[in-house]
Amino acid sequence: MNLDWAAQAIDALGSAVFYEVEMLGTSIGLIVVWLAVPMVFFTFYLGFINLRGMGQGIKAIRGRFAKEGGNGEMTQFQALSTALSGTVGLGNIAGVAVALAMGGPGAIFWMFIIGWFAMTLKFSEVTLGMKYREEMPDGTVRGGPMYTLKNGLAARGRPMLGKWMGGLYAFFAMFAALPMFQMNQSFSQAGNVFGFGDEFALTYGLIIAFAAAIVIFGSARWLGRVTSAIVPVMGSVYLFGIFVILAVGFAEIPAAIGAIVSDAFTGAAAGGGAVGAFIVGMRRAVFSTEAGTGSSVMAHVHARTKEPVSEGLVALLEPFIDTVVICTLGGLALVVAGTWLDPNLQDIGITSQAFANVGPWMPYLLAVTVILFAYSTICAWGFYGSQAWGYLFGDSKQSIIIYKTAYCLLLPAGAIFSLDVVISFVDSAFFLMAIPNIIALYIFAPELKAMLKDYWARRVEGLDAAP
Prior knowledge:
Distance between the termini: 61 Å
Oligomer: single chain
Largest sheet: 2 strands, antiparallel
Number of strands: 4
């Protein structure tokens, strides 16, 4: 199957999205600046809610406010699990390896730093998404950045502008919803471990697509049950492998931490120097956390709560778990193992070899983890994409079936394309989503701050204590 034309189109798209300008003596992509600035701005503007809100977020997922009810098809824990299923996984396992290969150890440092600031963006977009979601008479809801733009701007007397900006976001989201990276890297690891080559790519893609269709054609409630079961278990299994690597190479940990920190500012291992390490770290951190892109809002809006800020506080835990903890530990383990220095290894092969150095059975453990993580992410993104499709073309049963069918049929392409093409496609689509989403955050910033101040006074300072 000759797909050279598609690869060329994706390369052209990547060149346009990541257009670079000269800043600080080096070339920096404008889209990277577009995301870095609001991360810092909102963190200060909202009084470091990424730090002071973590305790409240933990209380919420433990069911502290569950008895208050509210429309929605998931508990707050299930909503977080569904959102995490779209972020925790290949963005961590393979994404960290890609970051090391492209940006050196310094990229891991910047992923760690960016993860903290990403927590604020996640809080902001989810809180607004909860406020402007649409609640149906049957108790179901629909929402996401497209509805934030549509309903938020309509409330300000600009309904047509909101409708078209929401449509722009939904258009980009439909393309970003194709989890090609997950399919590509799960096939790569499965092939390495079980010994099948590229000729099996299409077959593998069809098998995963069929398995995903079983969940994708179900409801949000069904998706919540599946992801809340898979994500904690697979996260624990992956972290077990990482801790084994760190335990075996315990003596190398101080040197590895030193390399990660020093390389972040010298960039000796990165072709673009320190700034190059930062850019790679930013791209991989955004793909890992999805903060600023608004994608996980489409999961969180289904949480059963009447308090938008409460779900925003749950959501800010997502980048902490996903990037600050899991990506950092994974990156440290790979630096300790030293496999990223092998020129014969790339992408998830770097991680697989690190696991193999501990024991011959470890890559099999990684393969199972990768496949299940890819599966949960594919299911979650099938749900996200259907929300975007429904906004653009209507959410009738027939319309959504058309989308879900097309989605499942396109999934095998991720196993067929090369890694470079896949990374260019997913990064381009992800960052394009951030354009209308970040605009929405700036527009609604004063409202967001007022909502947080009111909630904090009632819930945290006890002026209207929660039952």
